[in-house]
Amino acid sequence: MKIALAQIDMGFEQKEPAKKRCQVLMEEAARQQADLVIFPEMTLTGFTMSPTLYGETHENAPTLTFFQEEAKKHHLAIIFGMIFLENSTAKNHCIILDKNGTIQADYAKIHPFSFGAEAKHYVGGDTPAFCKIEGIPISPFVCYDLRFPEIFQAVSTESQLITIIANWPVARISHWKTLLQARAIENQCFIAGVNRTGKDKTLTYSGDSMLVSPTGEILLHLNEKESLGVCDIDITEAEIIRKEFPLKADRKEALYCKLYER
Predict the structure, then answer these.
(1) Of 128, 130, 161, whose CA–CA distance to 142 is shortest?
(2) pTM greater than 0.85 (yes/no)
């Protein structure tokens, strides 16, 4: 699979200019014959705490329609972030579309970022997501989820590619890079982390989007500029590593559950 990391500066709460930036990178991803392009969290708005202004309903979702049309136009699978509202309740979502624009996964961020007041405006989801794109099992997560290894262990029993879309500020970027590698190593899977760049109302972002192999090797690393990086992965690498070094066979999940109960 040829994966494109689409690291954009979407500005802040300006959907139309952000759409144009996304279109440029999707055209480039298609030109480079990518199978899948991945955008940052809250792709068209940035990390807004105004979900009632910028959220959409499943019945009326212009952001979803926009990306569906682009997927069909470019014959390109797309992962992006948006806000959904249900009965005035907001959730931070990651959507996976196939090349026909059909929704394959709709994931609501399990861990709203309470330190950054996200938990005051958004409700956390409670269910991981699974799908296959080009035959590859994928699970998506969002930003702060990266700090919680248990959910990665849970989905990696099925998924060999885990994606994390983010608005991760430069002040804690060393954590981002370290955790991406750690999650790849401990789950023996490919990890694709796509962060935004530029500035929003108060924060600065350095990008540092990365694609990491199941052994922790950094296959692709973008700098702070808005850019598109494309890398071809062979998913059988994850299968081979899991067979050669059967780490998961030694996990004691029943014991871990008892320890949590204490």
Answers:
(1) 128
(2) yes
